[in-house]
Design a protein that fits this description.
Elements: E1 7-10, E2 13-16, E3 22-25, E4 34-36, E5 43-45, H1 50-80, E6 108-114, H2 127-142, E7 149-152, H3 165-176, E8 184-190, E9 193-197, E10 207-211, H4 216-219, E11 222-223, H5 224-232, E12 240-246, E13 258-261, E14 266-269, E15 284-289, E16 299-300, E17 309-310, H6 311-322, H7 328-345, H8 348-357, E18 371-376, H9 384-387, H10 389-397
Parallel strand pairs: 6-7, 6-8, 8-12, 12-15
Antiparallel strand pairs: 1-2, 2-3, 4-5, 9-10, 10-11, 13-14, 13-18, 15-18, 16-17
Helix pairs in contact: 2-6, 6-7
Amino acid sequence: MDQSGKLLKDTRGYSCGRCRQRLLPNTSNVPEIQLQCPACKRIASAAACKTDGTVSYVVEKFKNKLLRRNNRQESDDSEKFISLNWNPSPLKSSSPPSSSRSDRRPRKRAVLVGVTYKRWKYMLKGTVNDVRNMRSFLIESFSFLPQNILVLTEDETEPYLIPTKKNIQISLQWLVNDCRSGDSLVFYFSGHGLRQPDFNGDERDGFDETICPVDFLKEGMIYDNDINSTIVWPLPKGVTLHAIVDACHSGTILDLVYVYNREKDEWEDNFPPNGTRKHTNGGLAISISACEDNQMAADTTAFTEKGMNGALTYLLIEIVKKNPNSTYKELLDNIHEAIVAVNNSGCLFSRVLRSVLGNMILQNSRKRRCVLSLIKNMHKGNGKFSRSLRGLSISSMTMKIRNL
């Protein structure tokens, strides 16, 4: 059929049937109009053009179907999401973290941060799983109260619960605020970690370690110096802080003054060369990190088919659940043995990571170490800690994990 004198309809409007010159937008009264095409000078009539009308109808039908599917998926996602925070969250609750200030029983408080970086090309898929697992672990195994656990993830709907730099800093301040003897505090982070040149002279290797909030490209990273001054300095005598950091370059992320050497079974000096204060106010700070400062870590499905998990997080939880009376030394030994077993198994996860990242992530236990850092009783330059270093190594490493 010769359609050179007719208007052709598509999803954007009408065009000349001969030269395809666009004539006017899609309007309801177009079928009653005749126009002269400015290009070919033919008279274009808006008489019915069934073929192109059919194409337009099919396109519109597909678009509507796609929109309905997307809306339904968004609705399903919103229905599935359940906040990991107590309502109201600890930050908004007007009551103290325990039942009352007159209650002198030890309090337990935790900040759990999982950053996915959804709008960045280096997105992580296992961090929310890590936070969810760590929260359940603290509640079920160590009797933490849900209302005393503050969770920051990108899935949370409240703006102040998104893991931005500002929100993480506020959460860390909340963690140590008004702590007293007998309190047990936990800081957990799952996300990206980086290294930056040290310009203060307080790092033995010349680099500061950092964690990356979701907005770090705009607002910047959180440095180990800042974490130390926020949650390590204020710890009074009788307060214990456990920091578990599942991120790259996280070995000394709290800048604690001693690092445990698993192979030598002794504590190594990590005092800042320039004498900057890194100690507590008499309390105990323990940090367990996924790798050394110059190494990388990653999410993995090597341990479970249910989803991605950080290797340190998954192994730590599973080992402590199976061996609740483990010491710190036994915990580190078991984690290393599990990593070596995964490497030796030749699983797909291990092979892929080696080919993509040049063997930087999963290495044998001599080169890749989960790092345990510790500081205690260093207020006012107390030297007792360093003089009994070997004895401290024995007593600290044999301390039960259940003391969390």
